[in-house]
Amino acid sequence: MIEIKKGKVIELDKEYIIENYSLNTENNTIDVVLRDTSYNQLIIIPLSNLQEKLLEQYEKKNKQEDEKLTPFDKIDEELLKEAQRRLEIVKAVMNAKSVKEREEIAKKYNVHLSTIYRWMERYKKSGETIYGLLPRYERRGGKGKKRIGEKALEIIDKMIKERYLTHQRISAKRLYEEINAELISQKLKPIAYTTLLYYLKEIDRETIYKKREGRNKYLSTINPAKNSFEANYPLEWIQIDHTPLDIQVVSEIDRKPIGRPYITVALDVYSRMVYGIYISLDPPSYYSVGQAIYMGLINKNHYLETLGIEGDWNINGIPVNIHTDNAAEFDGTNLEKFCMTFGINLVYRPVGKPFYGGHVERFIRTLNKELHNVSGTTFSNTKEKREYNPEKEAVFTLKELEKFIVYWIVNYYHQKPHDGLQGLTPYEKFKEGLTKSNFGIRVLSQDELRIARISLLKSDYRNVSKEGIRFKDLHYYSDILVRYAGDNKKYEIKYDPKDITKIYFYDENLQDYIEIYCKTPIPPGTTLWELEKAKEMLRERREKITSYKIYEAIKELRKMEEEAREKTKLMRKQIESNKTKLSSKEVSEKLEKPIDKTEEKPQTQIKKPNEIKPFDIEFDF
């Protein structure tokens, strides 16, 4: 895990300090202003590019140190309990007001203070994740690590408490100068600026806020006034909610209606930017919540490229708090382990206080209102719908709807002034939060993202035979399975419904998930939906379900899908060549939809959607 934060010293081709952030209006991206520590020159680099460079360095360093992470859903319960005990001790020491108080805490828990300092160091090195406190870290030793003497630590601790954690709110740079002046006067070796930043980062964010901003202001943030819930900086609070969308979608094969999809939305409360989404025909579950969170963890540039959408969706990283309702689908052990592992506070919405989830609910209402202008809308109630038949008018496939919604989020919603943000757009508010606050964006490494992605996938349990694992009428095999074959024990597997050409099997010896590929010949990138549709087709034809038949059926489905796409392209070309004004229905049937940034579209009670004009989005998948 890496952190990008104002005032932090980083190494690229040379040493830089992160000065600030700026909004690039030409490219509509967030840039980072860096100052060269040697020549005091400023350079500007896009935030996403800086993340990539720092992550590349992080990966290279960890590879050299042979760091290996245990999937968070496979952490032994006893080890997890011990890590939680250590976290309790570390937090207590971090919040202690003096060295004497730290010593009393160490005595209370019967742990030597130097041991607690080592735990703190590992905790910070792991990006404030539970990995840094797992007992297995004990075997790694501490080669090459510099130690600061107890006398110097006492001076640093005292000056942080007396000078930094006060209403005077002096800067970290000023504190650094004062600490070194005191150390030199005591004939002690001065510390590096990065060392001070390291110790400041150890202090709990809540403690810093209460000491520097005041207890009353802090309490006002965690006990919101009636009908309000606000955040102080980006990624402090992520609210999650889900609902059926007010639209019918059609099959990619025959364009027949197949139902209303669900959307799970994760929203950044501070900026109102969308942190992540997941759209599916399946009801909300732990999986859908996990997928929305995972989207929020990643850099979304590649995702936008796969959809063919130009724009910037520059919000990603580990949030401080995740806020959900108390529904059963959120109450997953793996979700709680995920949050615990990466230092996220999981908060369930209080019963009888719906305003705690008001921001994300308002966003969903805004999105559904936008969908009321699209053919296939179900509207929000029967009165609005009247004689309008959404199944007959439906035109979007699930993929096309996802592309439409993402385009609307990135190029309309994020760019439109928001009533709750004093006229700022969500994108501008996010940038303002980066500039004005001193929080750090914590970004996961590729290995951490891999562990998070796999652990948040769907689970099932299967026996292992000498032929491998049979799952969904498919066979999966790897030599790694041989030692597990024939013991009649059911093992947990993970699978991604969007690609069932492989599953993930947890190898207890390697303590990692291993990719097990499908032995049954199926086309690359086969989805679970395609597989189930192929088997349904074979059953309707009363044909035996065999590996060969499944393969041929999926190929046939893809051919039908391609033919449907070609028909859509042909219809679109006919629209472009038509010089006459098209009706709303005709345009909707061609999958075209406007983005009008100049005025709000009123919600009216009509039989059919408002007139929709075409815009340049090609729905090619």
From TrEMBL:
Residues 230-434 form the Integrase catalytic domain. One of its GO terms (biological process) is DNA integration. It holds the Pfam family Mu-transpos_C. InterPro entries: Homeodomain-like_sf, InsJ-like_HTH, Integrase_cat-core, RNaseH-like_sf, RNaseH_sf, Transposase-like_Mu_C, Transposase_Mu_C, WH-like_DNA-bd_sf. One of its GO terms (molecular function) is nucleic acid binding. SUPFAM superfamilies: Homeodomain-like (SSF46689), mu transposase, C-terminal domain (SSF50610), Ribonuclease H-like (SSF53098). Residues 571-621 are annotated as: Disordered. This is Integrase, catalytic region. It comes from Sulfurihydrogenibium yellowstonense SS-5. The lineage of its organism: Bacteria, Pseudomonadati, Aquificota, Aquificia, Aquificales.
